[in-house]
Amino acid sequence: MNHQYKKGFIILGIIFILLFVFRFIYTFFESSEGPVPVHIQSSRDNDSQLPFNIASSKSAYRDKGPKQPQSVDQKYERVATMESKSGKFDDDEKNSRDIIKKFGALIQFENRSGLPGKRYLFMAIGVDPEKFDDLVSEIKKIGIPGLLEIVKKDKTNEYKDLNSRKDSLLKARNSLVALKSRGGKIDEFINLENKILEIEKEIQKLGIRLGEYDSENEFCTVKLTLREDRVATGASLIKRAADSFLWTVKVYFYLAIAFALMSVGIFFSLKIFDRAKLIFQKIR
To answer: How many of the other CB atoms lie within 10 Å of CB of 175?
Structure first.
C-alpha cells in the first residue's frame, strides 16, 4: 500500500510539473491583446477625419498614329497603412517622430488611447511623394510589423470633372450677370441676384476642393498605428513563474475535483450495477 501511495503521489507530482511547464512556456507566446477601444480598433476608423492628400506626376502616352508621345498630368492618392506591435512603446514612439522629422513630413492627425501596458497611438503623416517609399522603409523597422498595405488611386478624372463643373458654373454666372444690364422688374432682379449668389457659393466650394489638388500642397499619406504589447515588453521570469504557479494550482484544483466527482460517480454506478445484478439473479 505504501508503495502504491508513493507511486500515486509521484504521478500527481509529474502532472503538476507538466502543467506548470506548459503554462510557463505559454507565457512567452501569449498575446496581451484585450478588448481594443472601439475608436481605435483600426486605422480605418479614423479615415473620416484624415486630410485629403493628393500628388501628381507627368505621364507620357502615345495615341494611335505616328504622333509624338502626349503628356498628361496625373493626379493620384497614395496611402500606406502600417500597424505594429511595440514592446518598447516610448522608444518606438520617439523613433517614429524622429523619422517623421528626418524626412520633413507632417503629422496631420493624431489619436492616442489606453493606459500603460495597452497603449495605442495612431498618426496620419503627410510626406513628399518623392520621400514616401523611404519613409515607409524606415518606419517598417519600428516594433513588430503586423500590417503593411499601400494603395494608389487615380484621381485624374475627378480633378477634370471638378474643373469642368467650375467652368460651367462660371459661364452660368457670367450669363446671369449679363442679364442684370437689361433691367426689369424688382422681384425678377432679386431672383436673379439670389441665383448668382447660389452659383458663387458653389464656385467657392469647388475652389476649396480644387485647392486640395494644388501642386504646392502635394502629399502622400502614411497611416501608422502603434499598439503596445506586454508580451513584447517582456515580463520578468519571476513574475512569469508566479503567474504560472497560480494558474497551475487553480487548474490542478479543478482537475482534482473533477476526478473526485468522476470517481464517486463510477463507485456508485458500480454499486448500483451490482445491486441490480443480484436482484435480477434472485428473480430468475
So the answer is: 11
> What are the mean pLDDT values of the chain's consecutive 10-residue runs (284 residues total)?
66 81 76 42 61 74 56 82 90 94 94 87 93 94 89 88 88 82 74 87 85 76 88 62 85 83 79 75 68
72: β partners: 59
Give me the amino acid identity at 210.
L
Classified as helix, coil or strand, 89 is helix
H-run or E-run covering 211: helix 186-211
∠ CA 31-36-39, nearest 5°, is 155
* Alpha-carbon torsion, ordered 118, 124, 155, 129, to 10 deg: -120
Residue 55's CB is within 10 A of a number of other CB atoms, namely 23
**By the 8 A CB rule, do 120 and 37 touch?**
yes
